């Protein structure tokens, strides 16, 4: 199937109705790739004032520019989360999106053309729930089954929240292609500067039991 047709179809489908099934669009009969179970997408998790404040707070912190895209690490072994991230971590738990309050956050910055390779988040150090809050540019995230052939994609809009748990967290990789535009409703949307805040919980290791 031509990529642009494929994309123009699935972006119109709310993930609320895509719950691990293959769907067919009325009148088009084109299969819509099912999103992994455990993926929950929430548009407008924060408002635009909060987005601006978070962007400003991010820019006041120091970027690590030693890897292919700028990155910041907060919380975990770096100490407590700064207030501006702790407030969002608390909201994720209070709103029922996360069972525990996240204690560490990675901030990724993406200029147009930058992405992140396919990966499953580290299972030894991170808990079962991953929360990604998007600021700035819209971007497409792609998912691939680790032990299978299935692929899926989800547009991440500014101010949205993406939750990954269960199969979406452990059995599928996620990635953002390093390119300058994304398919949106049959067109290409040019990327701008994007920042993501990825909230995770540390895996606590108790004393070994006999
Ligand atoms: O930028 C994103 O939306 C994804 C970030 C991510 O996958 C990561 O930090 O491991």
TrEMBL record:
Database matches in InterPro entries: AlkB-like, AlkB-like_sf, ALKBH7-like, Oxoglu/Fe-dep_dioxygenase_dom
Keyword NAD: no
UniProt protein name: Alpha-ketoglutarate-dependent dioxygenase AlkB
Keyword Oxidoreductase among UniProt keywords: yes
One term of GO molecular function: dioxygenase activity
Sequence ranges assigned to domain Fe2OG dioxygenase in this UniProt record: 101-203
Organism domain of life: Bacteria
Source organism of the structure: Algicella marina
Keywords, alphabetical: Dioxygenase, Oxidoreductase
GO-annotated biological processes: DNA damage response; fatty acid metabolic process
């Amino acid at each position: 199937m031509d990529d642009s047709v494929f994309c123009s179809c699935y972006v119109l489908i709310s993930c609320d109705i895509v719950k691990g099934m293959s769907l067919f669009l009325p009148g088009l009969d084109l299969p819509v790739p099912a999103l992994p179970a455990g993926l929950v997408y929430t548009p407008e998790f924060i408002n635009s004032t909060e987005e601006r404040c978070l962007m400003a707070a991010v820019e006041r912190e120091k970027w690590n520019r030693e890897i292919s895209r700028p990155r910041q690490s907060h919380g975990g072994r770096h100490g407590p989360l700064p207030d501006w991230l702790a407030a969002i971590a608390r909201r994720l738990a209070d709103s029922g999106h996360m069972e525990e309050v996240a204690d560490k956050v990675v901030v990724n910055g993406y200029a147009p053309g930058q992405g992140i390779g396919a990966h499953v988040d580290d299972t030894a150090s991170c808990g079962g729930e991953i929360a990604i809050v998007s600021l700035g540019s819209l971007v497409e995230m792609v998912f691939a089954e680790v032990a299978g052939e299935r692929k899926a994609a989800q547009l991440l809009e500014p101010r949205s929240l993406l939750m990954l748990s269960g199969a979406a967290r452990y059995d599928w990789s996620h990635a953002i292609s390093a390119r300058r535009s994304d398919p949106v409703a049959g067109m290409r949307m040019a990327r701008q500067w994007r920042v993501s805040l990825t909230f995770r919980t540390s895996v606590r290791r108790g004393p070994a039991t006999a």
